[in-house]
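re: that chain from earlier
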Amino acid sequence: MRQATAGALTGEPTAAVPAPLTAPEAGAAACRDFYATLASGVTVVTTQGPDGPAGSTASAVTSLSADPPLLLVCLGTGSRTLAAIEAEGRFAVNLLRQSQRARAELFADPRAGSAERFASVRHRRVLAVPVLQDSLGWSVCLTEDLRRYGDHCLVVGRLAAVSTAAGRPLLWHGRSFHALADPAGPEHRPPLEEA
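^ sequence. v structure.
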């Protein structure tokens, strides 16, 4: 440990300052394994591309701010959806229901083109962006910022229109899809601890 010397000038005891931490660099596989333990909701991010609607499955989506209302979406740098968002400046985040696993798989399949992805999905345009009509909820966002980090881009969007419905979300954890467990009835809930 290094010793701080500021106290020596004031007559106070010197405090121990820990040495900077050094750790071995984590490998890509270990990082992916760590990321796989993060549970998240499954979404389809959509936008209007030059050749029609575009969209892809994303689980790296989170609220960023309530005032102003901002969402954060992470998309791979090679994503066709990302390219369309960069060109159009707007996108939608569609929250998938637990029954929509096949949709999540279709929009994640790199072999499926936009026409195939949208062929069997009811959608409508809100602020010129396609939104999936039977989703658990959707938000149309105007792009506020876009930054490249490694092999992904962070896309920050300001919410311009929002819709939510009742239901249960599709979840992603451990590299597979999951549903929430049935909620316990009131008789099975543990009591809240008092502060």
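The mean pLDDT is 86.
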